[in-house]
Amino acid sequence: MTEVVNVQDAKAHLSQLIARAEAGEDVVIGRAHKPAVRLVRIDTATPRRTFGTMPSLSVPSDFDAPLPDDDLAEWDG
C-alpha cells in the first residue's frame, strides 16, 4: 500500500517528496491520513513535429508562387 504523507510533513519535506516523485515513486499527500492528492512527475518530452509527415498531404513545388491576376481579382472583389 502507498504511504500517505500528511500535509505538515509534505510542507517540511517538499524537496524530498518531489525528488521521490521524479524518480517514479507514488507520492500521496493527505489530510488526517486520508489521501487527498497525488504528486506526479510531468513528462516534458514533447515529440518534435516534422513538416510533411501526413501521408495525404502534398505540397507543390510552386506553393509560394504569386497568384495569377484573375485569382487576385477575385480576392479583391
TrEMBL record:
Pfam families: PhdYeFM_antitox. Residues 67-77 have a biased composition (Acidic residues). Residues 53-77 are annotated as: Disordered. InterPro entries: Antitoxin_Phd/YefM (IPR006442), YefM-like_sf (IPR036165). Antitoxin component of a type II toxin-antitoxin (TA) system. Belongs to the phD/YefM antitoxin family. This is Antitoxin.
